Amino acid sequence: MHFRDVLKTQPITFSFEFFPPRTDEGAEGLLSRARQLRDLNPSFVSVTYGAGGSTRSTTRDLVVRLQRENGLNAAAHLTCIGHTRAELREILDAYRRQGIDNIVALRGDPPQGAKEFVPTPPDGLRYANELVELIRREFPGFGVAVGGYPEGHPETPSRLSDLENLKRKVDAGADLIITQLFFDNRDFYDFRDRCELVGIRTPIVAGIMPIMSWKGIMKMAALCGARIPAKLLGRLLKAGQDNDDAIARVGIDWATQQCRDLLDNQVRGIHFYTLNRSNATIEIYRRLGATDSHGLRELAST
Ligand SMILES: Cc1cc2nc3c(=O)[nH]c(=O)nc-3n(C[C@H](O)[C@H](O)[C@H](O)COP(=O)(O)OP(=O)(O)OC[C@H]3O[C@@H](n4cnc5c(N)ncnc54)[C@H](O)[C@@H]3O)c2cc1C
Q1: pLDDT in tens, 177-232
Q2: Is residue 299 part of a domain?
Q3: In the annotation, is 17 catalytic?
Q4: Which domain covers residue 226, as residue numbers?
Q5: CB atoms within 10 A of CB 271
Q6: Tell me: the pLDDT tens digits for 149-167?
């Protein structure tokens, strides 16, 4: 289902993000966990595209299988990096032929060690707004989501220019903004207000990631620049850096509180960074008092 129709029929969207596992065995395991998550009735699920376009076929296979075999509305992430325009067209055309309705259009990060982003010669795209333009012009049937950064994109010289750049993606035709993960809802509300001030009316979906391990969160925070509030950091340290179970309990507890607060504050959607697991997301729904996404919507409206 096209993002536009999802947004038209659902006052709040709930979606789950996966990344492509490295092995066939891993992919089977993920498909089975995704079947458990299907019972939560997500609005859509999405599959990331590996750094530098490194998971081109594994992303595609997983997206198609999640939709065909698991009956989920699956969206494919696609990045500019590592591709010429002709390659991007080829990938988009394959998705169109396979009945995929939605693309999450991103620039991608420069490879490890590289200081800045370099478009692929001879005609690669430099920014995500160019990918949105290409999709709108040549593949108008796709729904398009783009990334937004409540704490500012790590490369941006100022929050204001970051918002102007987000507006370029919206003006190019994005249907939906999915935010980078954040741990302090105040950053999200401030971002939402700033978007409103610069005239961005596109629905904004909040990216929530339950922390599952100390190592994982440190790596992720370094990569995307997410700030860990002192209160959360204190709880994680108390849990013990080597105690994954205790860290996960803190992570689930924190993410549940974030979701409850977002639902009380008219969030348009929540996108769960599942880290390919199902238990944390299922537990968050349970703690919020809902058996599926319909239940969460009802909770928000009471
Ligand atoms: C929801 C979500 C999903 C993601 N999924 C993936 C994934 O699957 N694979 C992956 O590799 N990465 C993924 N990322 C990470 C993303 O690729 C990086 O954050 C990347 O550095 C920026 O991507 P973007 O699409 O936001 O880029 P852009 O919107 O192009 O922005 C990149 C930087 O350039 C600036 N900028 C943008 N447009 C212009 C312009 N026209 N002129 C001047 N400056 C400009 C922006 O302010 C920003 O600092 C995801 C991020 C999010 C939020």
Answers
A1: 999 999 999 999 999 999 999 999 999 999 999 999 999 999 999 888 899 999 99
A2: no
A3: yes
A4: 3-289
A5: 26
A6: 999 999 999 989 999 999 9
**Number of domains comprising the chain:** 1
Look at residue 298 and tell me if it is in a domain: no
DSSP 24-93: HHHHHHHHHHHHHHHTT--SEEEE---GGGTTHHHHHHHHHHHHHTT---EEEEEESTT--HHHHHHHHH
How far lies 64's CA from each of 72, 102, 119, 166, 242, in Å? 10, 12, 28, 29, 37
* Cβ pair 122, 81 in contact under 8 A: no
> What is the CA(109)–ligand 1 centre distance, in A?
7
Domain for residue 20, yes or no? yes
Within a domain: 282: yes
Q: Which residues pair with 145 in a beta bridge?
A: 104, 176
CB distance 55 to ligand 1 below 6 Å: no
Residues paired with residue 104 on neighbouring β-strands, in sequence order: 77, 145
CA of 108 to the centre of ligand 1 (A): 6
CATH number at residue 257: 3.20.20.220
Please say if the pLDDT value at position 74 is more than 70: yes
**CA of residue 113 to ligand 1 center, whole Å:** 18
| Residue 108 CB less than 6 A away from ligand 1 | yes
| Residue 53, pLDDT score | 67
Alpha-carbon distances, residue 266 vs 48, 172, 302 (angstroms):
27, 26, 12
Is the CB of residue 173 less than 8 Å from the CB of residue 143?
no
Confidence of residue 110 (pLDDT cuts 50, 70, 90): confident
Backbone angles phi, psi at 18, to 5 degrees: -125, 165
Q: Which tokens sit at 183?
A: 């741990």
Claim: this prediction has a pTM higher than 0.90: yes
